[in-house]
Specification:
By secondary structure, the chain is mainly β. The chain has no helices and 11 strands.
Length: 118
Amino acid sequence: MDHQPFSIQSIALDSIDGLRQPIADADVEIVQLGRGQLKGSLTKAIFPKLAFSITDFSLPLRTSGILGTKNLTICMLLDSHSKSISWARELRQGDVFFSAPGKNLDAVFGERSEVAGI
């Protein structure tokens, strides 16, 4: 049986630059919508055929771009202290949203949000 290693990386965020690749093969543009310095964290776990990430951030952000080039990306809004929207649909705590392979995602996440993706 071939056992390939997995990796886990956790970083503290102090700007949107750390969120440029929130999950394995993402290519997204992130714009900070709130004033002040963003604070948060990003943890990524990468297994041979699966990638998982969880992030939290203090300020509202707009995300646009591709979350996965080859695979479906499944995300969940774990928490948000203000309005979050994906494709003009309001997201609430616990809502699941998808990004098809190679397709654009457009979302706005409110202040103090926490999002997980696989």
